[in-house]
Amino acid sequence: MIINMTELCKLAEKYIVDKCPKYNHNYTEEYHELLKDKKYENVLEIGIGYYELMKDYTSINYKPGASLYMWKEYFNCNVYGCDIKDIKLNGIKTFIVDQSKENELINMINKIGNCDFIIDDGSHILDHQIISFKTLWEYCNDFYIIEDVKNLELLESLTKNLFNDCIVYKKYKHPCDNQGFICYKKIV
User: Which residues on neighbouring strands pair with residue 171, listed in sequence order?
Assistant: First the structure.
């Protein structure tokens, strides 16, 4: 049930994004509260989303890169996406990257530069999430979110003391599937 139909919830429904209550998770309500006052220039999302995978979670009308288009409209900024698959999108620069390979992440981020907001909705494999976080954190200016985490406490315990300029800002556990997200914030 949607308690607060936020601007981000509406965009997620428009683009058929699984981050919203209508299609799968309640993340967009939470994300809007975190991000509603942000003015970002560069956003990176790990995991682009493609039809064969996402149609079962969302709709037969799903289009690749739905959440990237949602972020682009929400922030009106440069949005980048990476995935292990080669997925081309209009108006969004995409990269083929295996998030379990530090060198591929570094090659990509060197082409992009620092990002204000990074969100990991990629493989959902704990080791890959940790590698990506450890590799990309220094290039993140504000929030770094890891989505669809099965064990929030374990991920937090493995990451919370990695960097002096990082705090766990928010954790959210979805009531229906026991997955959630963890949000790290850059502190200066």
Answer: 182
